[in-house]
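Tutorial, part two.
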Amino acid sequence: MTTAHLDAQAIPPRGLEEFRATKYFPALDGLRCFSIAAVIWHHCTPRQLEGVAGRGHLGVRLFFCISGLLITLLLLRERRISGTVNLSRFWIRRCLRIFPLYYLVLLFFTLFALRLPLTSAIRSHFFESLPYYASHTSNWFVNYGVPHSVLFGFAWSLSTEEQFYLFLPLLVKKLTGRTTLGLALLALIIVDQLTERHFLGCVFPRHSRVEIIVTSFMASIGFGALLAVALDDARGFRILRPLLANKFSAPMLFALVMIWLIRPPQLFVLFEAALALFVAACAMGGDFRFVRAFALRPLCHVGRVSYGMYLFHVPVIGALRHTLPFIAERAAVLFPIALIVTIGIATLSHRTFEAFFLAMRPGSRKPIPAGFPRRGRT
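Running the prediction step on this input gives:
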């Protein structure tokens, strides 16, 4: 759930140097708006729906593509300018962006779980899983195959992102050749896909913990990162620019994504690759009308607060179902109300609670919000 900012201001990417200097991709914030809206819709539906209406959970894959592209571009830019990657600075910035709100919301879920009956299976499962939620390993160790709701279960995707933030800077720092880095990312995608299809059962036994850990690497993140490596390279940029930076690129890739949403390909990884290419086309084609439609100010605002929305939307939906039971099963009514309420809460959080910690990040130019104590003061 990273921001679409690499620094501050947008510059149209007409050539490699202009692309490397681009500091903000507004359309990617807009795409993040559609991602979080799709996820909220998915959790508003009382049961799995058929067709496109039942594909809201794929909004998370779009998040992954955006994160893979932006975070890798950020790290490659730092390495090109300074000659290395400052790991501690990167991780401190990520921690101050992710952890404060994450652990605050986890605390609220813990307090809610304490109010459940001692005999509640949901309560027992939550406290058994709490160490994994706290350590961002829920995608590895939490049992999702239970016959009841999994409290805080949506954290699996945040664990996936945090693990990506942990190992990607190490790869970029150690693998200084772009070809080597690209091959390493491609190898991760291939191993993930072969393991998911149980072709590597002799190495990663089926349903084993090691298989779960290996397949927790999402191909969508890998494709986003792989495209970033290619676009940051002169030869790769020269090859991809005609394909991704013309006025037909984003519309045609969008059409392909929509077709595969309606009728998914046999190999789902092809959908993830198309999604990553669409994201890259939106980053490359900021001058074109179709891409600018994703950069409208309201969409960008929702994209900027989408991290908070992801953390808040499940309790908001639960509260609305509890207080307005007559809309609990009516997703078409529940969804717009949940979306608006979640945007409001996330906006307030972003401008107050989150802003305080964002201002503490190394290199941040954002002032600490009024009403909060400054560092060095009691």
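Residues 16-358 form one domain. In part three we will examine how such features are distributed along the chain.
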